[in-house]
Write a structure and sequence with these properties.
The chain is an all-alpha fold. The protein contains 14 helices and 2 strands; from the N terminus they run H-H-H-H-H-H-E-H-H-H-H-E-H-H-H-H. A two-stranded antiparallel ribbon has the order 1-2. Helix 1 packs antiparallel against helix 2, helix 11 packs across helix 12 and helix 11 runs parallel beside helix 14.
């Protein structure tokens, strides 16, 4: 009669050991969100805007992490999804009565359709061939947007006005503080959704594909379908970041679709920590802060010291800043 409790003891011990870690995580999460919510009330206008922009670029990096960190696919096509999110929101604000939710929805739809199109072809390839294919598609979208002057404005881009807030009965215009809070709320919800996706059975299959695609296919999983869905989800979150960027800057330009945006998203992942979700947000913050701070001392060549710091992180902290912090805390 005493055997079953004895066999259950290891499981109970493991569960109880995991509880403090979860408690620490949620406490740290709550403190971080609280600090980010209070920050715009005390920061000067420039740094407040920079913090809001860091959250938006961090969301783009997090969308890329769904592919890089959890599916094992490096994408250079996220500039297309981000840029189409910007242009989708711009089209909604220019062609229809200004509506926050319509702008976000059309930005998501534009990025989602493009992600499905790219995924259908690119996921048939692996490794560097997948990365090059996504790069090619991003440049195709860039050329179309650059050349289709009648619709996209060409190199002059599109300017528009931000829609009213339109949340919980508040219909006034966005202020820098309310815009920051809106962006923060969206990024927090996106992070929680991404975290739920990666911890679900679907996310487990994605990790299996990352570790051993051939074995995952051998045990019966339709790998191509999972990869297509992964690219679509990643593209949707990238489009969401693009829509937020449009709301903040009230401008859409071909540069938002250029492949350099994809490269910066990869940099955010490497600096912050691949496969951590929150790491790319930290990486975006470090990268943008360094770029802004160093540009005040090296007005023309500021990217050189930024590049040196990036190389040092790769050499000495290959797991990224957040990955390094997690390892030290677990020691």
């Amino acid at each position: 009669m005493s055997d079953p409790p004895a066999r259950a003891a290891p499981h109970a011990k493991a569960s109880s050991a995991a509880l403090p870690g979860r408690r620490v995580f949620w406490m740290g999460f709550a403190v971080t969100v609280a600090v980010l919510a209070v920050a715009p009330l005390v920061l000067p206008a420039f740094w407040r805007a920079l913090l809001t922009e860091i959250l938006i670029w961090g969301l783009l990096g997090m969308s890329s992490d769904l592919l890089i960190g959890y599916t094992g696919m490096v994408s250079f096509g996220h500039s297309a999804f981000f840029g189409l999110g910007v242009y989708g929101a711009a089209a909604a604000l220019l062609a229809f009565p200004p509506s926050l939710w319509l702008a976000v929805a059309l930005g998501l739809a534009s990025a989602g359709i493009a992600a499905l199109f790219v995924a259908y072809f690119a996921t048939r390839l692996r490794d560097i061939y997948f990365a090059i294919t996504t790069l090619v598609f991003s440049q195709i979208f860039y050329v179309i947007i650059f050349a289709w002057t009648a619709v996209t404005g060409g190199e002059n881009g599109l300017t528009f006005q931000a829609p009213p807030l339109g949340i919980l009965g508040f219909g006034g215009p966005f202020t820098p503080v309310t815009l920051h809070w809106f962006v923060l709320a969206v990024v927090v919800l996106a992070y929680l959704l991404c975290r739920r996706i990666t911890q679900s059975p679907f996310g487990t299959v994605l990790k299996s594909i990352r570790e051993n695609e051939a074995r995952t296919r051998a045990i019966g999983y339709p790998v191509e379908r999972y990869k297509i869905v992964s690219v679509m989800l990643s593209g949707l979150f990238a489009g969401l970041s693009g829509a937020l960027y449009a709301l903040m800057n009230k401008f859409a330009a071909p540069d938002h679709v250029f492949w350099v945006v994809s490269g910066e998203a990869v940099i955010y992942n490497v600096m912050g920590g691949i496969g951590t979700l929150a790491g790319p947000i930290l990486g975006a913050g470090v990268f943008l802060f360094l770029r802004e701070f160093l540009s005040r001392f090296f007005t023309t060549y500021y990217l050189i010291p930024v590049g040196i710091i990036f190389i040092l992180i790769i050499i000495f902290l290959p797991q990224g800043l957040l990955g390094f912090a997690r390892r030290r805390l677990n020691e």
